[in-house]
Structure formats: structure tokens, C-alpha cells
Amino acid sequence: MTFFGLQLHPQYTTWDEMREAALLAEECGWDVLMTWDHFVPLMGDVTGPNLEGWQILAAFGAITKKPKIGKRYSGRSRTGPSNSEKTHVSGTNTSAATASWLPVPRRPETCHVS
Which of 34, 51, 60, 85 could form a disulfide with 10 if both were Cys (CB 3.0 to 4.6 A apart)? Predict the structure, then answer.
């Protein structure tokens, strides 16, 4: 079976815009609704607004019924795979892929965002 998904970027946007996009995606019949969990925007000024991925998933779960929801990326050094496995959004089907670009895991105290 083939699924079609849409990834909404949480950078330089507001929750109202994310909510409207998620509802429109559901109305248009998208099977999967994704976001990411980067610490900072990937484009433009890194100090710009960037919504938090797990909060977005919880909100998507509260406002949508049909699409599966998930995160395309979750920062392993911040949340850790054990935390990801314990996260559950009631009444939805969630998934996340954890990734790291570092050769070895970092300790949380070494993660600094200016």
C-alpha cells in the first residue's frame, strides 16, 4: 500500500498557520502529516522562531483524525531514543525517526544553542 505524506516546517511560522496547514492537509486527503524537531531554523537566521516538534505532534493529534502523524527527525542528543519510545499521543498513530550527525552521542551538557 502506498501512502502520501506532507512535511510541515515549524520554522518562521506561527501555531495558527501550522494548525490551518494541518487541517487543510487532512481535508485534502494526505495520509501522513510530518514535522521535524530541529533546535533552530534550518534556513535564514538561526535565532528566528522555531516551534518544538513533540508539542506539534500532540497538537496535530488533538486536531486531526485521519492522517498518521510523526516526526521526520528528532534530535537524539536532546530527547534520546528512550524518551521517544515512551512518548504517546492519545488516539493517534505516531512515529519518529531519530538521527544524529555526530560520530558519538553527545552529553546534554555539551549541547548549547545561542
Answer: 51
Domain that holds residue 57: 5-110
Sheet holding 32-37, edge to edge: 5-7, 32-37, 68-75, 94-99
> In Å, how far from its chain's centre is CA 52?
7
Confidence of residue 53 (pLDDT cuts 50, 70, 90): confident
Does residue 18 sit in helix, strand or coil? helix
Lowest-confidence pick of 12-16, 53-57, 100-104: 100-104
Domain count, the chain: 1
Q: Is the pLDDT assigned to residue 75 strictly greater than 90?
A: no
Residues with Cβ within 8 Å of residue 68, at least 6 apart in sequence: 3, 31, 32, 33, 92, 93, 94, 95
